[in-house]
Amino acid sequence: MDERESGLVERVLRGDSDAFGPLVTPYRKALLGMAYRLCRNWEDASELSQETLLRAFRYLRSYDPRRSFRNWMFQILVNVWRSSWKNKPDGAALREWAAANAADSPEEEHDRSELRSQLMECLDALSRREREVFLLRDIEEMSILETAEALGISPLSVRVRLSLARKKIRKRAMEKFPRLMEGGP
Fold it and tell me: What is the pLDDT of residues 120-159, one digit of tens each?
């Protein structure tokens, strides 16, 4: 934890709730992105990230300043998702994603939509635990140790789950979307 974060945490703990905003602002976008990748629905992702922020505020006294604040926030996010959000339906997720990432031409939009759909289907091949590790390690670019800390598992478990996740994604992509793996149009 850097000095800025440390000072903001201390201010919040002394009762200055206005210091919480600047403390979490650098992580809001990353939390929302991770939340979306977990539940694949922007509305649920927004609620999930808000609940994460509420719990971070509520449990800030339990935060260990020797740990990374960012990782602590991601740990809360994953725990909230595990306990409350993982079973919510996500039928509109791809439509929302497509609307948010509209292309210039109908052909470009079709290609982007097809690619997004293929990538999401590859992620669907993963178990909950593999998905969490894959998203934190490969998408959020956390280290093995940071991922282990955020999920409350050993670094060896991260490596094993990540290896399995990558193999499943490659296998699913080769089976379902060989064109995607070849890099062709």
Answer: 777 888 888 998 999 889 888 889 999 998 898 999 999 9
Q: Which residue has the tokens 């993963």?
A: 126
What's the gap between Cα 183 and its chain centre?
A: 26
Taking each helix axis from N to C end, the angle separating 69-80 and 42-58, rounded to the nearest 10 degrees, works out to 120
* Whether this model's pTM surpasses 0.90: no
74 to each of 24, 32, 107, 113, 181, how far by Cα in Å?
12, 10, 37, 28, 31
pLDDT score for 40: 78
Query: Nearest 5°: CA angle at 85, between 32 and 22?
Result: 30
In the 8-state DSSP scheme, what is residue 125? T
Q: Is residue 122 a contact partner of residue 42, using CB atoms and an 8 Å limit?
A: no
pLDDT in tens, 93-112: 434 444 444 555 667 667 66
Start-to-end CA distance of the chain, whole Å, equals 45
Q: Is residue 34 within 8 Å of 81, Cβ to Cβ?
A: no
Q: What is the DSSP letter of 140?
A: S
Q: Could you tell me the domains of the chain? A: 3-85 (1.10.1740.10), 101-182 (1.10.10.10)
